Amino acid sequence: MLKNLVLLCGTIAIVSTKLAAGDDFDYMVDSIDDLTAHFEGPGAQYNRTFYNKLKTCFTKWNDTLLDPSMRGAWKGIVDFYKSNGTSDGYQHRPDHWGNCIYNTDERCMNTTYTEFQKGHEQHIGKHQILYYEPCNTISNMAYLRAVTRICDYPDWQMNE
């Protein structure tokens, strides 16, 4: 199940952000390092022992697409932010990163979520990517731990 879910998510991302041949840069750890440094201080890096375990988990089923698709997904986030999104997005309308902050467009979130309403958005990392909810973003990194726990059990898999 995990393999299929992550492969699906990664495949969606790699379709729009295919890594160039020979592009071995690890956009995933680079982005996670930016978040780690933001919360733990300049120069801090994400735990490499755990990250290596995560990467090993990605290859558990001899999958050759999962790692590049995950790197492609993170590259896609950076590229989308750097380009400020698109002028021809959903319903052929502009979809620029950060466009919904204090915007009354009906496509923007109408939420009662307190952290979002308080305007906690911050620019983080070397690319100064705008994070609407930095604390919520970093708490989602806990899902990476769940991935490795699933890989710890050899019989946890689904037929395709």
Q: Care to describe what's here?
A:
This protein has 160 residues and is mainly alpha-helical. The chain has 7 helices and 2 strands. It has helices spanning 2-16, 27-40, 48-58, 66-82, 114-117, 134-139, 142-151, and strands at residues 122-124, 129-131. A hairpin with a 4-residue loop joins strand 1 and strand 2 (129-131). Helix 1 packs across helix 4 (66-82). The longest helix is centred in the middle third of the chain and has 17 residues, at 66-82. 13% of the residues are buried. Residues 1-16 have low confidence and may be disordered.
Brief descriptors of the model:
two-stranded antiparallel sheet, 160 residues, 48% helix, mainly alpha
**Mean pLDDT rating:** 75
Question: Any low-confidence stretches, pLDDT <50, length ≥5?
Answer: 1-16
Rg, please?
A: 17 Å
State the end-to-end CA separation. Answer: 9 Å
What is the element string, with H for helices and E for strands? HHHHHEEHH
Estimated structural class: mainly alpha
Question: Which overall shape is indicated by the principal axes computed on the Cα atoms?
Answer: globular
Adjacency order of strands in the biggest sheet: 1-2
Largest sheet: 2 strands, antiparallel
Count the E strands. Answer: 2
Question: How many helical stretches?
Answer: 7
- The percentage helix is 40-55%
Assembly annotation: single chain
